[in-house]
Amino acid sequence: MTSPAKFKKDKEIIAEYDTQVKEIRAQLTEQMKCLDQQCELRVQLLQDLQDFFRKKAEIEMDYSRNLEKLAERFLAKTRSTKDQQFKKDQNVLSPVNCWNLLLNQVKRESRDHTTLSDIYLNNIIPRFVQVSEDSGRLFKKSKEVGQQLQDDLMKVLNELYSVMKTYHMYNADSISAQSKLKEAEKQEEKQIGKSVKQEDRQTPRSPDSTSNVRIEEKHVRRSSVKKIEKMKEKRQAKYTENKLKAIKARNEYLLALEATNASVFKYYIHDLSDLIDCCDLGYHASLNRALRTFLSAELNLEQSKHEGLDAIENAVENLDATSDKQRLMEMYNNVFCPPMKFEFQPHMGDMASQLCAQQPVQSELVQRCQQLQSRLSTLKIENEEVKKTMEATLQTIQDIVTVEDFDVSDCFQYSNSMESVKSTVSETFMSKPSIAKRRANQQETEQFYFTKMKEYLEGRNLITKLQAKHDLLQKTLGESECGLCWRFGSEGRPSPGPKC
To answer: In angstroms, how far is CA 346 from the centroid of its own chain?
Structure first.
């Protein structure tokens, strides 16, 4: 004989769930730490670039004999033990590639030291300061969004836990009521059998002496049978009531399970990607502009530098937020990869791991499906409008940070007076009235963008949960016409199952 199936106890199911949630919570914490680390590395990179150009401007004034020392100073720094981890973590990121090529180019720099010094001090270094300020501000806002997304995800997991506990409780009540009903049925069968045996054992006596006794015994037996039947009816009603509660609780658990898995998948596949995009918003483009300013000065400095500068230009062209984001997620794959889907955990032998769409819950599920469909239609229209506004605002930000203002060729059109050169330089990108206006406009646009992005992500999160519930209900109700329900397969996908 085959051994009876072993069912997981409530404590075992809760323990497994808690373990999985703890792993996700730890992963979420590590994600924030990882993003913090990337922000710190980015700030350090920008600080190094500022220090580099400031020192380079000083050396330009002392002539080119010090340029080789400058290059070796920073090259030695990257080779030091202290910076090996920095290099290891970002060796595939495009900004660092530009940085390394820039160091190699320093060895070839000479001439026009006064002009170059002025450009470095009054144009390039302020750009890096601006990029550093923007990166810190955007990272802070992005972190707030990320924390909100993580809080929402944990809220969904807590809701799943609550629904699962409710399902366990009602299913346990159903099993208990079923046991009591079976006990009442056994008592009824026993009482009826006992009555039959007593009647068979009775021997005929004179009518006068036994008639009263028989009538009294029959009355007692009938009274006992009626009491047992009444008790059985009560327990039958109790079992029916508890069974219906258990079915509804299981349906709620399965719907919450589907919505939770959809929310977790959306967070790891879409939200994290969007969050990193927010952290990188304008960073690569601004760095591109700053380095193109350097390129313009160097390309006008001497045509003999083309070979080295072409390599740097190619690296600058390859400054790509999307590629760097992909590389970052690959480098920390264990942090950003989605966790395993939550599987249905049958309770105490309840193997009906599917939505039950038969009466008496069918009409309720149909109404709920229709309500979800109506709600989703409204939400999708609203969220699409928010998305259009968000995308238009993002395009405005991109237009601000990608303006082509890095050409400094006019600075090399020398006149008889050096004052004209200084005047030309001072009237370029970093004039105070112009930058103040642009900065104010940029920050105001950024604030509006993050407001719309939060609204869009919250709407998309709600749509994802409701869509998952609606799709499962729709599939279940579609199959219920053939007498089928839907169950979850090994990969968490719905598949046809036996009748409920």
So the answer is: 27
